[in-house]
């Protein structure tokens, strides 16, 4: 799987990270299916409440309007435009999923009410200057978590990907 992260979305996240400082923040990711296993992130919601320096918990009620507006703009074309996953920051730790992050993603994809058969978790942190350090992991029922390639769309924000393989093996997945 491959994600394309356009510069405006990367800038939006980077700006929110600058404001949040050492507090974890996060939100939803919505995307366009542009190829067999390629998705272009269209937008990201931003939540700055219900978080500490070491924990972020997404509040679904804070993102409902974001999803409604996205689906209105895309005329409900769910096969082309849809929710693709979650993102949050690790300002004080490596930008790789923690055990709690992995369990949260499993609960999302296993929940029959969610109607998703896979989801991506993007973990980010600010590097020096305007650098975004990140990892992306795909979760799907019946499969082990898998590292996702992230390509930055047009623009000038450097992206550094973190490798996940050793962490996932260490956590037992």
Low-confidence stretches: 163-173
Overall number of domains? 1
Structural class determined from secondary elements: alpha/beta
**Which descriptor suits the 3D outline?**
globular
Please name the fourth-level CATH homologous superfamily: Cytidine Deaminase, domain 2
Helices and strands, in N-to-C order? EHEEHEHEEEEEH
The CATH architecture would be 3-Layer(aba) Sandwich
Average of per-residue pLDDT values: 86
Q: Share of helix among residues?
A: 10-25%
Radius of gyration, in Å, reads 15 Å
Strand content: 25-35%
Largest sheet: 9 strands, mixed
Question: What are the SSEs and their pairings?
Answer:
Elements: E1 2-5, H1 7-20, E2 26-35, E3 38-44, H2 64-73, E4 81-89, H3 99-110, E5 118-126, E6 132-140, E7 146-147, E8 149-152, E9 159-161, H4 165-171
Parallel strand pairs: 1-3, 1-8, 4-5, 6-9
Antiparallel strand pairs: 2-3, 2-4, 5-6, 6-7
What does this structure look like?
By secondary structure, this protein is of the alpha/beta class. It has one domain (2-171): Cytidine Deaminase, domain 2 (3-Layer(aba) Sandwich), CATH 3.40.140.10. Helices cover 25% and strands 33% of the residues. The protein is built from 4 helices and 9 strands, in the order βαββαβαβββββα. It has helices spanning 7-20, 64-73, 99-110, 165-171; strands at 2-5, 26-35, 38-44, 81-89, 118-126, 132-140, 146-147, 149-152, 159-161. Strands 1, 2, 3, 4, 5, 6, 7, 8 and 9 form a 9-stranded mixed β-sheet that branches. Strand 2 and strand 3 form a beta hairpin. The longest helix is centred in the first third of the chain and has 14 residues, at 7-20. The protein starts with a strand and ends with a helix. Mean pLDDT is 86; it is low at 163-173.
């Amino acid at each position: 799987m491959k994600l394309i992260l356009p510069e405006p979305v990367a800038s939006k996240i980077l700006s929110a990270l600058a404001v949040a400082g050492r507090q974890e923040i996060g939100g939803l990711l919505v995307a366009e299916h542009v190829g067999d296993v390629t998705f272009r992130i269209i937008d990201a919601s931003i939540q700055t409440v219900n978080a500490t320096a070491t924990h972020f918990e997404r509040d679904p009620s804070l993102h409902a309007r974001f999803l409604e507006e996205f689906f209105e703009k895309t005329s409900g074309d769910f096969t082309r435009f849809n929710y693709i996953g979650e993102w949050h920051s690790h300002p004080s730790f490596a930008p790789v999923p923690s055990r709690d992050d992995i369990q949260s993603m499993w609960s999302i994809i296993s929940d029959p009410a969610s109607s998703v058969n896979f989801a991506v978790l993007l973990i980010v942190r600010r590097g020096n200057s305007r650098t975004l350090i990140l990892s992306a992991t795909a979760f799907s029922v019946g499969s082990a978590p898998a590292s996702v390639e992230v390509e930055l769309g047009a623009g000038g924000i450097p992206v550094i990907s973190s490798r996940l393989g050793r962490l996932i093996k260490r956590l037992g997945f």
